[in-house]
Amino acid sequence: MPSEANLGAMPFDEETRTALEASRREGRALTETERAIVGAEALTPLEAIERSRQSADRADHAPGSRQPMIINLGPQHPSTHGVLRLVTQLDGEVIRDLHPVIGYLHTGIEKQCENKTYWQAITLVTRMDYLASYFNTAAYTMAVERLLGLEVPERAQYIRVIMMEINRIASHLVWLGTSGLELGAMTMMFYSYREREKALDLGEMIAGDRMNTRFFQVGGCADDIPQGFEQRVRTWIDELPGHIDTWEGMLSTNPIWVDRTRGVGVLPADELLNLGVTGPVLRAAGVDLDLRRANPYCGYEHFDFQVPLGTAGDSYDRYTVRMREMRESARIIQQALDGLPEGRHIADDRKVVLPPRGELATSMEALIHHFKLVTEGFTVPEGESYVAVESPRGELGCYVVADGTPKPRRVHMRDPSFVNLQALRPMARGAYLADLVTMIGSLDNVMGGVDR
Amino acid sequence: MSEVAAAIEAACPGAVLADLEHVGETTVEIAADHLLTVARFIQGAPLSFTLLSDVTCADFPEHADAGRFRLAYHLYAPESGRRVRLRVWAGAEDPEVPSVTPVWRTADWHERETYDMFGVRFAGHPDLARILMPLDWEGHPLRRDYPLGGEEVVFTDAE
After folding, report:
1. Minimal C-alpha gap between B29 and chain A (Å)
2. N vs C: which end of chain B shows fewer Cβ within 10 Å?
3. Are A441 and A425 in contact (CB under 8 A)?
4. Do B77 and B52 contact (CB within 8 A), yes or no?
5. B54–A414 CB contact, under 8 Å
6. If DSSP codes are grouped into helix, strand and coil, which group holds residue B135?
7. Which residues are registered as beta bridge partners of B87?
8. A10 vs A17, A23, A68, A80, CA distance in Å?
9. Contact B109 A419 (CB under 8 A)
10. What is the pLDDT of residue A1?
11. CA angle B47-B49-B51, nearest 5°?
């Protein structure tokens, strides 16, 4: 790591140079992260070789006096689940320090939401955490519904629960497949993606789109469940526990899997909570915090399910917690299908909800409502609301500030991937480089959610 | 006055500026210079808001006299399941508030994001660098006066 004094002599990447100039202009020193990025970008490979040759020539090259090696992992690195860059200081194989550098997928979704009407913004928030798109839209629409004081019909809430739990299983299946792949269990990828395909097909059946459906609308769901959907869901969840048994049979006692995950990435529960970590990572450390249980929404209080907990808080426990969560999700879907109430799939409020398509041909009033809603959108009274749901990765919160116009003043997502990623640094310090891959996998970050 | 606001006012006199209940959510407006004391109090027993869910900001250029940048701290108490929102106005010129990272370490990245997007500085933050935008980015994109512009596309047939 270069000191402040000799920074001037080094060749810099353009971004680093201007950042340095900006900090000098503002009369402040570089912050820790800025210094780490500068240090990682300062040398070309040839210069690095030259530098290590010089330090090897020096007389004081005694054991223990060596400089840490700085390695840039990413942003293009297969084990980082997207474009995550880690500036890592290595001492041999041990990680001395690590600085996550994020923002490579930043697309300004929050800014764009401010320039769209409330119903248009649903399409944008879907694309934040792309593996949990139903949860993004659920948090957003529930925040808007709370501001409007809009009552959502019970049937719509049950359909939301079914789709969210299917999405949770699909998201955990991606985690299972990729984590397995990273640790050498290649077969897992094929098995889990086969089941995930069926989940995506269910999404296609109900919404016409496989991943980024905007099925949840303000007031309910876009449509009722189509014919044959219930049967297909039932077949899928009936088979699922058997598949999970197979997968657990492949991994739970597999010596390589156990050796690579046991005792890896442990942090005490109170430290996790202080770092804001939620979801399966926190529950693996034994903290019973699941928002579906603690603050029920969408009628979760009607369902009988367990909150799986771990004891050690290591990557192995995170694995068992997620596997058991998939079983619980299947149980919730079963109960929701059994108890699916009759009624509307969306609220009957013509000022907010589009009129049924069929009415447009016969009713002048419906046509006017449709036209007004599509062109102007609906206004939301002034106020602010924060709605949190339990996404596959933890607390996903949506903060909406309304100013009485048809466009939101502010839409902010508290994305669990973003917050949980902060725990990587304390987790990885002093660990082996090879275990870093396990830790990233067990945190299950989705970079689309981190960068938004 | 809500229970939380009353408890804060009793522990740190002069900290609570306003207190409102809206759509079932509790918001307590705090004076910026009392923020860190209030944070320490509210995090500990008996209120035990141990989880800081979120720190974010909204820009109100039309309320420059009130402070323009309105920060929202969303807190959660895992034992009681209660939520509360602390609201702090940061000031229109050189917005700055004390950092709550000494109380909740999770505030680190949230405050970096708020600094990056709104230019609100957090006094006492250990590492206040940009987080989502490149280090050399000029301006703060989520301010209302920052235009939502497209990038100019250079067509291959252009001169």
Report:
1. 14
2. C
3. no
4. no
5. yes
6. coil
7. B29, B72
8. 10, 17, 18, 29
9. yes
10. 40
11. 165
pLDDT at B110: 93
Residue A109: closest CA among A122, A95, A98, A90: A122
Contact (CB<8Å) B136/A18: yes
Closest CA of chain A from B47, distance in Å: 15
Across the interface, whether the CB atoms of A102 and B22 are under 8 A apart is answered no
Edge-to-edge strands of the sheet including B16-22? B16-22, B25-30, B82-89, B69-77, B51-59
Contacts of B129 in chain A (CB under 8 A): 31-34
In whole angstroms, how far apart are CA A77 and each of A44, A85, A182, A435?
19, 8, 11, 15
The ipTM assigned to this model is 0.89
Q: In sequence order, which residues have a C-beta less than 8 Å from that of residue A35 and are 6 or more positions away? A: A1
The pTM (predicted TM-score) of the whole model is 0.88
pLDDT, tens digit (0-9, with 9 covering 90-100), for A283-341: 999 999 999 988 999 889 899 999 999 998 899 999 999 999 999 999 999 999 999 99
Dist. CA B98–CA B125, nearest whole Å: 8
Both tokens assigned to B158: 């252009």
Q: Longest C-alpha distance within chain A, in Å?
A: 92
For the cut 80, the answer to whether the pLDDT of residue B158 exceeds it is no
- Looking at the partner chain, which of A275, A385, A397 has a beta carbon nearest the beta carbon of B23? A385
A220 sits in which H/E element: strand A220-221
Q: Which residues of A touch B113 (CB under 8 A)?
A: 418
Longest dimension (CA), chain B: 70
Residue A77 CB contacts under 8 Å (≥ 6 apart), including other chains: A84
Element (H, E) at A55: helix A45-57
DSSP code string of A32-44: HHHHHHHHHHS--
Q: What is the DSSP string of A258-318?
A: HHHHTT-S---HHHHHHTT--THHHHHTT----HHHHS--TTGGGS-------SS-SHHHH
A33/B contact by beta carbon, under 8 A: yes
CA dihedral A39, A43, A49, A53 (to 10 degrees): -60
Note the pLDDT of residue B5.
85
Least CB-CB distance to A33: which of B51, B58, B129?
B129
Residues of chain A with pLDDT under 70: 1-16, 41-45, 48, 51-52, 55-67, 78-80
Please state the separation of Cα B70 from the chain's center in Å: 7
